[in-house]
Amino acid sequence: MIALDDLDRQILFALARDATLSAGELGRRLGLSQPATWRRIRRLEDSGAIRGRRLRLNAEALGFGVTVFLGIKLGRRGQGRFADFERAVSAIPEVQTVEHVLGLYDFRLRIVARDLPDFERLLRRRIMTLPGAGDVEANVLLSEERLPGPLGA
């Protein structure tokens, strides 16, 4: 774990809000030189505190108006089943995230679909036919708020 000072936290907060900020712009906002800001960002990347910068697509603007969180319990146990299922479900383009979790379900998926009938087709034809797929629980996303700060963004 890396020790963070106030400037490190401010850098993380600013980059979490806008990952496109240059070291020069970020330095101007924080009262640091561009080289000093760049060195701090590099140290945060090297330590693993920053694991890259990602492009966030607007699923709704791309025609995917429904987001569903799907809990899946595998029908049969065994480490091979987990790996087979995870590999197969990761190949479905509408599946945005795959999380192996502890609790009532074995996996939690974030899925985007054009609408509810599209999600139903995806569930019946693609997901429920995967190796080991068993019980499912779907939760449709109604709204989402991004929390400010490095851990909420």
From TrEMBL:
The keyword Transcription applies. InterPro entries: ArsR-like_HTH (IPR011991), AsnC-type_HTH_dom (IPR000485), Dimeric_a/b-barrel (IPR011008), Tscrpt_reg_AsnC-like (IPR019888), Tscrpt_reg_AsnC/Lrp_C (IPR019887), Tscrpt_reg_HTH_AsnC-type_CS (IPR019885), WH-like_DNA-bd_sf (IPR036388), WH_DNA-bd_sf (IPR036390). GO terms for biological process: regulation of DNA-templated transcription; response to amino acid. It holds the Pfam family AsnC_trans_reg. The keyword Transcription regulation applies. SUPFAM superfamilies: Dimeric alpha+beta barrel, Winged helix' DNA-binding domain. Residues 4-65 form the HTH asnC-type domain. It comes from the Bacteria. One of its GO terms (molecular function) is sequence-specific DNA binding. GO terms for cellular component: cytosol. Keywords: DNA-binding, Transcription, Transcription regulation. This is AsnC family transcriptional regulator. It comes from Pseudooceanicola lipolyticus. The lineage of its organism: Bacteria, Pseudomonadati, Pseudomonadota, Alphaproteobacteria, Rhodobacterales.
